[in-house]
Every structure is written in C-alpha cells, then in structure tokens.
Amino acid sequence: MAEDRFKVRVAVLAIIQMDNKVLLQKRINTGYMDGFYDLGAAGHLESGESLKMAMQREIKEELGVIVKLENINFASIVHKKDGESGLEYMYVYFKIKKFY
Prior knowledge:
- The chain has about 100 residues and is mainly beta.
- It contains one helix and seven strands, in the order E-E-E-E-E-H-E-E.
- Strands 1, 2, 5, 6 and 7 form a five-stranded mixed beta sheet that branches. The protein has a two-stranded antiparallel ribbon with strand order 3-4.
C-alpha cells in the first residue's frame, strides 16, 4: 500500500564557488543551529519542484541572485538521520560557479 511506503524529507544545498573560495553564511533567526556557519543557500524541496528548481528558488530567496538551471550542477547526495529530531533527510548538494 502507498501509505506504508517510506517517506523522507529532501533538502537542497548550494556549494557556491568563486575564485577558489566557497560562500558561507552565518545562521540567524532560523531556530536550528543559529550562530553556526552553513553553505551559501539551502532549503526544502517543495511539492511539484525538481531538485534544480528548488535550488534555484532557494538561492534567489536567500541571496537575491539569479542562477540559470544549466549552471546548477549535481555534486553529492547524503542520506542522514538527524540526531535531535530523529527525522530522516536526503541532502542533495549542488555546485554553483556562475550566477547573476
């Protein structure tokens, strides 16, 4: 039955590189890991989005820059169970080298 299928949350994360440097941001007012550094942009996949579309949206929302879908390149995927909440996540990482 479909109700019995395993469900996992999906998050996309941007590894934004420029001049051999990686952009990091300090987390504030999120309620999760505030005060720690994180990749340049990250967020959850929304219904109806492709992974690349979710990454494009999160970068625009969090950084105010435009990235074309063809400049969003798959880097890695990690399946992890969060220690605090016990929720399972699929983290999908993308490399971004060109943005506007």
